[in-house]
Amino acid sequence: MMYSETEGRQELVRVGRSLFERGLTRGASANISVRLESGFLITPTNSCIGFLEADKLSLLDYRGEWVSGERPSKEFILHRAFYDQRSDAGAVIHLHSPYSTALSCLDVPDEHLFPPLTPYLLIRLGQVKRVPYFAPGDDRLAAAVAGVAGQTAGVLMANHGPIVAGTDLNSAMYAIEELEESARITLLLNNQPVNLIPESEVEALRIRYGHQPAHGE
Asked: Structurally, how many domains does the chain consist of?
């Protein structure tokens, strides 16, 4: 989906406020963006998504060059990685949501980050990928995200937090909420015996919802 500029501004303010008021991120620790017919809108650098002003959002052209509004978040390069790799991406959300960020710090094999405990993360995102730690704004982090963005709409950045893409802001919001809830459940069940969804059922969900197999890269 491509938003009109007016609609994109309104939706960024609405979704930003909703995510902030429900405690999914704190302070100036998140950034969200939408694809426009003429470029992109993204939250400004050092802004709190709970208090966005529509006329101050950062407008970028299709090359990612700043056109108007306040200075854009330096992490637009992460968003651009999804837009470049996923033609269906109409919106991208990056949060520092606590459970997902905590999970990103765990010293466990990547395949153990999100065991198939419930079907909902598989439905929304498929197999979430984790990429190595690089400093915020580092081109190497954007390259790492770009390297997996074609395989999944959800990425966990080590020691940093989650970033997801959706066809529009609502779908991206639902996806990152489900990722956060899945991380919370995983951490709550840590070191306890669990019943996993059988692999045959996991595969059926992947096929039904059009997601890549976990090890099918």
From this structure: 1
Mean pLDDT of 48-61: 97
Confidence band, pLDDT 50/70/90 cuts, at residue 98: very high
Cα gap 84→106, rounded to integer Å: 29
CB 30, CB 49: distance < 8 Å: yes
For residue 156, being part of any structural domain is answered with yes
Q: Which two tokens stand for residue 19?
A: 């995510």
With beta carbons less than 8 A apart as the criterion, state whether 30 and 96 touch.
Answer: yes
Contact 121, 153 (CB under 8 A): no
Tens digit of each residue's pLDDT (9 = 90 or more) over 23-49: 999 899 899 999 999 999 999 999 999
- Catalytic residues, which ones? 75, 120
Which residues span the domain enclosing 118? Answer: 5-209
CA distances from 191 to 127, 136, 203 (A): 22, 31, 25
